[in-house]
Amino acid sequence: MGVTASAESREWIGKASYYALKGRTASGAHVGAYTGAHRSLPFGSRVRVTNLRNNRSVVVIINDRGPFTGGRVIDVSAQAADTLGFRSAGVARVKVEPIAD
Questions:
Q1: 43/63 Cα distance (integer angstroms)
Q2: How many domains is the chain built from?
Q3: Which family does it belong to (predicted)?
Q4: Span 31-89, pLDDT tens digits
Q5: Distance (Å, rounded) from C-alpha 82 to C-alpha 8?
Q6: Could you tell me if 35 and 62 are in contact, meaning their C-beta atoms sit under 8 angstroms apart?
Q7: How far apart are CA 52 and CA 86, in angstroms?
Q8: 35: closest CA among 50, 23, 20, 22?
Q9: Which of 7, 54, 64, 81 is the most exposed place for a label (fewest CB within 10 A)?
Q10: Distance between CA 43 and CA 57 in Å, rounded?
């Protein structure tokens, strides 16, 4: 299953993974409880990530670049993966929706 993006709504559907980076992210911050990595969204952007299998969602703040594995649309912190219910699986099919400030 590939990655899809909607030009009108700027939402992405694809795989999410999680990470627990030691040290600083691309923005100079640290991985927080509810942070994430996206290839193109500006640092500080807030997005709602919804696990399409169980419909759990969480809002994360983008503070890093990635993911760099094909077919993945976002990396989230380990705590966000716990909330979404996929940490033990490692990856999940998700929808990512930017939240307007």
A1: 5
A2: 1
A3: Belongs to the RlpA family.
A4: 889 999 999 999 999 999 999 999 999 999 999 999 998 889 999 999 999 999 999 99
A5: 30
A6: yes
A7: 11
A8: 20
A9: 7
A10: 20
Closest C-alpha among 48, 66, 43, 57 to residue 85 = 57
Note the helical H segments in 1-101. 78-84
User: 81 Cβ partners below 8 Å, 6+ apart?
Assistant: 16, 17, 18, 87, 92
* Residue written as token pair 């627990």: 20
74: containing domain: 4-99
Q: What's the predicted TM-score (pTM) here?
A: 0.89
Sole residue written with tokens 């991985």: 31
CATH of the domain at 95: 2.40.40.10
Residue 2: predicted pLDDT: 60
Residue written as token pair 């193109």: 40
Torsion 30-68-36-65 (CA) sign: positive
- Both structure tokens of 28: 């100079």
